[in-house]
Amino acid sequence: MLPSQVDKPRFVARMFGRIAGRYDLMNTLMTAGQDRAWRERVAAQVGAARDVLDVGTGTAKLAMTLAQRLPRARIIGVDFAEPMLRAAREAPPLVAADAVKLPFADNRFDAVTSAFLMRNLADISTGILEQVRVLRPGGRLVILETTPGPPSAVPRMLFRLYFRQLVPLLGKLIAGDAAAYTYLPESSAHFLEPERLAQLLEEHGLQDVQTQKLALGTVAITSARR
Predict the structure, then answer these.
(1) CA–CA separation, 158 vs 148, rounded Å?
(2) 34-46 vs 23-30: helix axis angle to the nearest 10?
(3) Strand pairing category for 207-214 and 219-225
C-alpha cells in the first residue's frame, strides 16, 4: 500500500481528496477523541508566537486550535490537498501549497507546526529544511506524528492488530475508503522512531530538541528551536 517516492505526492493528494469529507470524524473515532488533546499540547508548546504557520493543515483543526489559544497571533495554514482545505470550517487564512516548496520568505514565522504530515512527505529532509527556512531564529518547530508503535512487545502487537485490522474496516464503513486507512497504519509502521526524528532535527541545525510520547507511545510530539 506504500507508493514509491516519485509517486507519493500524487498518491497522498488523491487519497486525502477522497476522504476529506469524513477525515475529522475518522480521526475522532480512531483516537477515541484524544486527537483534540494532542492538538492542545502542540499549541501549548508554540508559546507566545505572533506569526504561526501550520504545514499540512488539512481541515485546519490544529490551525483553529492555535487561533483559539493565540487570539492575537496571525495563523496561516497550508496544504496541497485542496479538498481538505475546502472541508475546513471557520478556519484562519488557508493557502494551497506544497510542504516541500512553501510560498513564504525566509525567517517569516515565530513558530511552524504540523500534525500527521511528516510521514506523508516523499522527502522528509526537504520538508524539514523548508520549515526551518521560514522559521525565524529562536522560533519553535513542533511536530505531531504517529510512531511505528509502542516499544514493548505486547502493546505493540495489540496496536498493530487494531491499526492494521480494525482501522481499515472502520475506514471502509465510515469513509468508504479502506485503502486510505490501510495506508495510514502502513505509513506509520514504516515511519521514523521519535528518537530518530529528533536526531534528524538536530542534524538540520535545530536545538533544544524534545520528544513527548503520548497514547502508550503510538503518537509523539517532537519540538525544537531554531
Answers:
(1) 13
(2) 100
(3) antiparallel
Enter the pTM of the model. Answer: 0.95
Pick the CATH number of 8-146+191-225 from 3.40.630.30, 3.50.50.60, 3.30.230.80, 3.40.50.150: 3.40.50.150
Residues 6+ apart with CB under 8 A from 35: 27, 28, 61
Q: Buried b / exposed e across 73-98, counting CB within 10 Å, b at 16+?
A: bebbbbbbbebbbebbeebbebeebb
Assigned C-alpha cell, 179: 485503502
Averaged over 55-63, what is the pLDDT? 98
The model's pLDDT over 109-134, given as tens digits with 9 standing for 90+, comes to 999 999 999 999 999 999 999 999 99
Going by the DSSP 8-state scheme, the letter that residue 135 receives in this structure is: E
Report long-range pairs for 19-24 (Cβ below 8 Å, ≥24 apart): 19/171, 19/175, 19/177, 19/180, 20/59, 20/81, 20/83, 20/84, 20/86, 20/87, 21/87, 22/174, 22/175, 22/176, 23/58, 23/59, 23/84, 23/87, 23/175, 24/59, 24/61, 24/87
Note whether 80 and 10 are within 8 A (CB).
no
Q: Are 81 and 61 in contact (CB under 8 A)?
A: no
**Rounded to 5 degrees, what angle do the CA atoms 15, 19, 21 make?**
150
What pLDDT band is residue 149 in, cutting at 50, 70 and 90? Answer: confident
